Amino acid sequence: MYKNIIFDIDGTILDTESAVLKSLQRVVDEELNKNMSFEELRFALGIPGEVTITKLGIKNTSSCLDKWDKYLKEYFHSVKVFDGIKNTLIRLKEMEISMGIVTSKTNEEFQSDFVPFGLMSYFKIVVCADDTEKHKPCPEPILKFIELSGADKSKTIYVGDTKYDMECAHGAGIDFALALWGAKSSEGIKANYILENPEQIVDLI
Hints:
single chain, 205 residues, alpha/beta, 2 domains, two-stranded antiparallel ribbon, globular
């Protein structure tokens, strides 16, 4: 059914939630003198860091992004590839499925936070936050991927874990599969498929 699968990174390939939110909590505490919970900060998952800092009302965006990145690296030991992802990528490659990435990470963040996990050989095209003017939930990142790959939209699906991912996919005119292993809940998300584990991605083919 599908010939092209596009993956999000955080919450889909990598389990980064704890590291991202703990490091963001520290930034908010220092900059706003607020103690915000994971629930209050979960909106940050799936959008570029610059957008998150702006939404929080923090003024010195550039220095805060640097600080957030510094703190994130201190929690990097807790980041891991979700169980089942590696085997799923291997099987999809054996089936000659074209795979790519659309992420809200910048190219620099992609190089430092994703490439070290050794999965790059599975992905032909990567679209990062600084590759487009607009970002998720705007469809522009996926449309950029379609442009670069020449993929048939009717045979392409985006796998992600947030409402932003869903809106990006549907806005671009492609199907969306919710990665429940990262999303934790499907509430408020209208997905074409709800997947409980990565191995179910293979069943879509």
